[in-house]
Model the fold of this input.
Amino acid sequence: MKKYPVTEIFGPTVQGEGEHQGKPAYFIRFGGCDYRCEWCDTPHAVLPQAVRAAERLDAFEIVERLRSLPPGPGWVVITGGNPALHELGALVNALQEHNYKVSVETQGSRWKEWLRDCDSICVSPKPPSSGMSTNKTEQSLSDFIKEAQGTNYFLKIVVFDHADYEWAKKIHKGYFFAPMYLSAGNDAGKTVGRPDRVDNRGTREVVNDLLERARWLTNRVMVDSAMMDVQVQAQYHVLMWGNEIGH
Amino acid sequence: MKKYPVTEIFGPTVQGEGEHQGKPAYFIRFGGCDYRCEWCDTPHAVLPQAVRAAERLDAFEIVERLRSLPPGPGWVVITGGNPALHELGALVNALQEHNYKVSVETQGSRWKEWLRDCDSICVSPKPPSSGMSTNKTEQSLSDFIKEAQGTNYFLKIVVFDHADYEWAKKIHKGYFFAPMYLSAGNDAGKTVGRPDRVDNRGTREVVNDLLERARWLTNRVMVDSAMMDVQVQAQYHVLMWGNEIGH
Done:
């Protein structure tokens, strides 16, 4: 059986963003990413030395690992990094055979046929503040969304600033038929897992900072006729537990 | 044209709970309620002297009032009190003719035919901590849900304590086919709009208290196999603006 670089398997916790925000879930995080976002909050699944150090597990071992966690959630979230770099069809089928529902989180840069088998796809294209090329992102998103027709997908865009907001508006206009969630940017991503950058804030401060940006975002969205069907959010897991890894 | 007791028309703001949490919306609050919940956070739409003092407006005047507010939201939330005490069919149709989508919030104690015309129904039966009879609530909810089949409805239950949690679980089991949201109880409801009870907490404290209860609720739900498809929430408008009336 094929082995994959797995950086974390954890839960029970809840889904933090998007259509299933607040639903109990386990998470499987795969190492490897085709992006290098400035504010990435999971560098331990992105940076090459971390991915090299990740455990190698096959589909059977992953399911076993999940089943050894405390019981509860019916959903499993496959995330990364970008899990769409891997061939995970056998894993998705194995999870569904064990009666889990499967969500996947990806930036929408690369399509894989196994995504069709997932119960939910969160497509999260990266805005200008990520430092990635929005031109390339828009092009690959267009290809991805064409393939995703007929699946149960939604869009989620992280918004840190004015340029991100305007870009999210452009994407919403282009894909008006897709449910759209805007998530207030979490500054913590700039330090989490980076030994060279230290975040001295306690949970309350992290929460207050996130809510401050969510207020800014909400105040804009709610008077913007172009945004009347989007849903604004703040990462629920961060509101609950701050930026602890493993939640 | 028939006139209704209207206690507030406000917005732009966002929907605070349920399936449309975080979506921009205007709110129309109707006076009058068949319940007297211990922790009601809108006594100004419930207590008889407040309802008597409420402005009387017809459907045309309500739409005019809405259109005079700053533009933005595409949704209008009809709430109360219990708006299902009134005959609001003409208003719902007028709003939809003006291209608004209409959400309604009701405890599910009384069915009205006009509810079928709404774009979304939030059914929010009241748990034991409300002080209302759960026997009566369960009976009327059963009748309500039968009528609601074929409409776009979901269940939302506020949870303050252990007894509320167990009751929510029972309701979820009985109506497993309905999307279910659990909202962490907001203590502020015990004081808002009640001159005899003063809340000296600032917004940060209100937010922290709400998040504390949301943590308790989330920690229970996420390890409870009976709750695997519910979504836990904290009122988004409270996270944004505390307990200010008019948000």
